[in-house]
Design brief:
- This protein is α/β, with parallel strands linked by helices.
- Helix content is 54%, strand content 13%.
- The chain is built from 9 helices and 5 strands; from the N terminus they run E-H-E-H-H-H-H-E-E-H-H-H-E-H.
- A 5-stranded parallel beta sheet has the order 2-3-1-4-5, with helices on both faces.
- Helix 1 packs across helix 9, helix 2 crosses helix 5 and helix 3 runs antiparallel to helix 5.
- The longest helix has 29 residues.
- The chain is globular and about 55 Å long.
- It starts with a strand and ends in an 8-residue tail after the last helix.
Length: 206
């Protein structure tokens, strides 16, 4: 098994890259999806979040209001650290369980852990390589505003709240630029994939 940690700043294009890798035969573990699962009503993380932030961050149906919680944590570093302390261990535990299961069912798989906070959550020690997805800040800002229907101020607050690009790139074993069109991104991903093939990481893959 070969495990790639796929990370990058918010709206950098990680999901696009993960989708291309999935087409190539990789198994993708999306930690955003895992994060949604660990905070469902009845889960320990859900109870801890409500206890820490109050019932004002809940929707009428009892689910977390992610936008309301986001407004709090992206404007308050201490609140963000508290939320991460609640969720990161549960996300890591769930991802470890998925990888353990894959080692039993598909031991030669190429697994991609798509994780915006791979390094911050301490999951970088779970992977064999770290691929960092990058795009210019202006491109990311535009994508984020359009994707999440945010004001420029809200989007800029979220960009500022994350690890700096330079620090993230220090951990990279491969950099995947996504500032161009989809064809350019696909070309970059294919080049990285073929490099793994040359290294003998996945000779059986297409």
């Amino acid at each position: 098994m070969f495990i790639i940690g796929l990370t990058g700043g918010i709206a950098s294009g990680k999901s696009t890259v993960a989708g291309i890798l999935k087409e190539l035969g990789a198994i993708v573990i999306d930690t955003d999806q895992v994060a949604r699962e660990v905070v469902l009503p009845g889960k320990p993380a859900y109870r801890d979040i409500v206890a820490a932030f109050g019932r004002g961050i809940l929707q009428p149906d009892g689910l977390l209001n992610r936008r309301a919680l986001g407004r709090i944590v992206f404007s308050d570093a201490a609140a963000r650290e508290l939320l991460n302390a609640i969720t990161h261990p549960r996300i890591r535990e769930r991802v470890q369980a998925q990888i353990a299961a894959l080692r039993q069912t598909d031991p030669e798989a190429v697994v991609v852990i798509e994780a915006p906070l791979l390094i911050e959550a301490g999951m970088d020690d779970m992977v064999d390589a770290i691929w960092v997805v990058t795009a210019p800040a202006t491109v990311r800002l535009k994508r984020l505003m359009e994707r999440d229907n945010l004001s420029q101020e809200e989007a800029e607050s979220r960009l500022r709240a994350q690890m700096g690009e330079g620090e993230r790139l220090r951990h990279a074993t491969r950099i995947i630029p996504t500032g161009g069109d989809l064809d350019a991104t696909r070309t970059a991903v294919l080049a990285a994939w073929r490099e793994l093939q040359r290294e003998g990481r996945m000779s059986w893959k297409k």
